[in-house]
Specification:
The complex is a heterodimer. Chain A is α+β, with helices and mostly antiparallel strands. Chain A is built from 19 helices and 23 strands. The radius of gyration of chain A is 39 Å and the shape is elongated. The chains are: A alpha+beta, B mainly alpha.
């Protein structure tokens, strides 16, 4: 204040200085303008001319882009048990060019750690040898002397990651790597399929339901300070990560395990090539368990060498069903009304019909007076032929189509086989008869189970269902399959067929092997020759048992097939498996034991 | 009043070019009570300076606070992600040991046998349905034929070393790794 006053008063007191003062003012203004114009030019240069490249540089220095992983959906069983889930795994990486000795503080003293020591420490954490890691470094440097990136270990869990991080080795880094895990191992493994190392679905539900499961990765950019700390409010999400939906299956994982375990035990005991077992809810057509032997553990697909064993033969392998198919022919005959349960025929050992076919039974026997019940109990091919020929080929073909033969089921499983059912005009005289007892056509285990489901469910065939739908993040279910049934048989015909199958269960030669006390059961065995892959038959047999229980109010269908059991190639091989699986199913779902007694139908006349 | 304010501002930012205001100077000189005006000038100056200082200090403190918050957020986020990893790892262990293979193996290890021979007692008439027999273990009770690579190297409950102190504790096939306490935020 005083200075200001002094200066202004001195200026006032020296008016003669006004000229030099004006010159000074002019010079000052000129200098100021010169300085300002320099600044202005620089400003324009920075803000306009170089703006783009400078902005890019600065953002590059400050901003960090990172992938925000969307999580691939889970595959869960009907109770919500996770069969396939996504977990975060970590890749341990390093910078080979920077792999040099470094200092670490141990007990307050700085200790120099050599590269070899560091490699040994990393190796101890990741389960490798130190030499292997040194080799990785030298290999990377040989390929490129400036190599700044190499993997030490991939897809390790968080324990290994922490062990490596705690070593505080400056030239090691980590990156996220989402991975797929199958907590129940091989339980339903053949159905689930698996992903490749890059996360591409390879088979099974992983592949078939990929549209539901697949997630989208997002991207996020933020700015960081010189010390690497994120600057608040600088996060920009350029793409939002979208998690995949969950596939809800109809499978029950506990039952699935039991079925697989039981099947595998019997298959190993009998020296089988492969085997399948299907458990179907008779009322709804939902698959409760689909077991394959050999089974694959999707966590370690490489352990299963044969690529065929990595899929599910229950869906993808069709075979001549053999005598289990006689139930279909019997049902067709009863439904069309050309025969009743009392109708009698004479079944010879060898039957030579007028069209030139040649049919014989599996064992030699004199002519027998049989009813339909007797034919199925003895599983007589000639007897079946005499009933089947009461229908035209076209009629039987139409019944087969209605039962789902020749068409893949509704499960939507990838590469599901529909079996082979030639049109009627391509049938030769032998095929015309062979199709009555399950030869000259092929079915999958699933289709056989579906035939028995139709008979069990009062003649209404339900679509075979493996997937309940795709559960989105908000809990809504999408892609819910159609569950409308179609009537194939009249209720009377279906129940009559069921009664016949119940007689088979009681009177068959394997009845002691599949007896389930307390329940009424309907079942049929089958023995069919297997193709040798060259157009003929091999020496192997495919033995099977299909049936349902409780027969008075059928709720569950079980179908067991064992291929080429070299140590026991008869239906005695699958019968105990059927018994154990059916017992377990009835026990597990608390099926009420049958009250009424089983029907007693005449088998001869 | 406006005069006074102008003066204060001039005093803070000297204007060297101001040479022509004689009329106002004169006006000011005839001001009747110059001393009484000088006092508010200092007062206002001090107020302004103090205000600016306060603003600067407040701004400094705020920016320190924000950057402190950034460090805290950063460290809390990293501890959250560490805890998330631990939670994921532990629940993964839980799911793995509750797989049917693990349960069956542990049950067998404890001497339990699977029985798929149900026998029913009908309450209405006391009838026994089925043939009661002691369970000999079903086919499913054999060694696990349904592999699970995730269980490799895990120990059965019955094979854990007998330790009376551990009796009653929930045994699991492999101990999940839990970091010792919460990670303390490290702020700088």
């Amino acid at each position: 204040m005083s200075v200001r006053n002094t200066r202004s008063s001195s200026a006032r007191n020296n008016p003669t200085n006004s000229r030099s003062s004006r010159r000074r003012t002019l010079v000052t203004i000129l200098v100021l303008f010169a300085v300002i114009s320099v600044f202005l030019v620089r400003l324009v240069d920075i803000q306009v001319v170089q703006a783009d490249s400078l902005t890019k540089d600065s953002v590059g220095n400050r901003s960090v882009g990172q992938v925000v992983y969307g999580s691939r959906g889970e595959i869960v069983d009907t109770n919500g048990v996770v069969l396939a889930g996504t977990v975060m795994r970590y890749n341990i990486t390093m910078s080979p060019v920077n792999a040099t000795p470094f200092k670490r503080t141990v007990d307050g003293k700085k200790v120099e750690i050599s590269v070899a020591d560091a490699a040994a420490e990393i190796g101890a954490a990741t389960g490798q040898t130190g030499d292997a890691i040194l080799l990785t470094i030298s290999t990377a440097l040989e390929a490129n002397a400036e190599a700044n990136f190499a993997y030490i270990a991939q897809k390790v869990d968080v324990d290994v990651l922490r062990a490596v991080q705690n070593l505080h080795i400056p030239w090691t880094y980590s990156e996220n790597s989402p991975s797929r895990v199958y907590p129940n191992g091989a339980v339903a493994g053949n159905m689930l399929g698996y992903l490749s190392g890059e996360g591409v679905p390879q088979a099974g539900l992983e592949s078939g339901q990929d549209a539901c499961l697949a997630s989208t990765n997002g991207k996020e950019t933020y700015e960081k300070g010189a010390d690497g700390v994120r600057i608040p409010g600088s996060s920009v999400t350029s793409a939002v990560a979208v998690d995949g939906g969950d596939v809800v299956t109809t499978i029950d994982s506990d039952l699935q395990w039991f079925v697989q375990q039981t099947l595998a035990a019997r298959a190993q005991e009998t020296g089988a090539a492969w085997a399948t077992a299907v458990v179907l809810d008779a009322k709804s057509g939902k698959l409760l368990a689909v077991a394959d032997y050999p089974s694959v553990d999707p966590n370690a697909v490489g352990a299963t060498e044969d690529p065929q064993d990595r899929g599910s033969r229950a869906f993808t392998q069709s075979f001549e069903p053999g005598s289990t198919f006689k139930a279909l022919t019997a049902a067709s005959v009863l439904d069309s009304g050309v025969a009743t349960l009392q109708t009698g025929i004479v079944a010879p050992y060898r039957y030579l019909p007028a069209n030139g076919a040649n049919i014989n039974d599996s064992h030699s026997h004199p002519d027998q007076n049989m009813t339909l019940t007797g034919v199925l109990i003895d599983s007589s091919n000639t007897g079946m032929s005499k009933f089947g020929e009461k229908l035209t080929d076209q009629q039987r073909y139409d019944y087969m189509k209605a039962f789902g033969v020749g068409t893949p089921t509704e499960t939507g499983f990838p590469r599901e086989d529909g079996g082979i059912l030639h049109p009627v005009d391509e049938w030769d005289n032998q095929t015309s008869y062979a199709t009555m007892f399950g030869q000259g056509l092929t079915t999958t285990a699933l289709q056989v189970a579906s035939i028995y489901q139709t008979i069990a469910n009062d003649g209404v065939r339900m679509p075979v269902q493996l997937v309940e739908g795709c559960r989105q993040a908000d809990g809504t279910m999408t892609n819910v399959p159609d569950t409308t049934g179609t009537r194939v048989l009249s209720e009377t015909a279906a129940n009559d067929t069921s009664d016949v199958l119940e007689m088979v269960y009681q009177k068959s030669w394997v009845s002691s092997k599949w007896n389930i006390p307390g329940y009424r059961v309907a079942a049929k065995t089958g023995t069919a020759q297997m193709p040798d892959g060259k157009g003929g038959y091999s020496n192997g047999y495919l033995v099977s048992v299909s049936g349902f229980a409780p027969a008075d109010d059928p709720q569950y269908v079980v179908s067991v097939s064992i291929a080429d059991p070299v140590k026991l190639n008869t239906s005695a091989a699958p019968a105990p498996v059927f018994q154990e699986i059916m017992s377990q199913v009835l026990k597990k779902y608390r099926a009420v034991p049958s009250g009424a007694t089983a029907p007693d139908l005449p088998s001869t006349w | 009043m406006s005069d006074n304010l102008a003066r204060v501002s001039f005093s803070l930012e000297p204007e060297p070019f101001e040479t022509s205001a004689p009329a106002r100077r004169g006006f000011r000189l005839v001001s009747p009570t110059p001393s009484s005006r000088a006092r508010p000038r200092i007062f206002y100056a001090l107020t302004a300076v103090a205000g600016m200082a306060a603003i600067m200090v407040a701004q400094l403190l705020l920016s320190v606070g924000i950057s402190q918050g950034a460090y805290e957020i950063s460290s809390l986020q990293s501890s959250q992600s560490e805890l998330g990893r631990t939670a994921a790892s532990v629940s993964e262990d839980l799911v793995r040991v509750s797989s049917p293979q693990s349960l069956a193996a542990n049950a067998e290890g404890l001497g339990m046998v699977s029985n798929s021979n149900p026998v029913y007692l009908r309450l209405s008439d006391g009838a026994v349905l089925g043939a009661p027999a002691s369970a000999s273990g079903s086919r499913a009770g054999a060694a696990s034929l349904v592999p699970n690579a995730l269980l490799n190297g895990s120990t059965l409950l019955s094979q854990l070393p007998a330790d009376p102190a551990a009796a009653g504790a929930v045994a699991i096939t492999s101990a999940p790794v839990v970091p010792a306490g919460l990670a303390a935020p490290t702020t700088r």
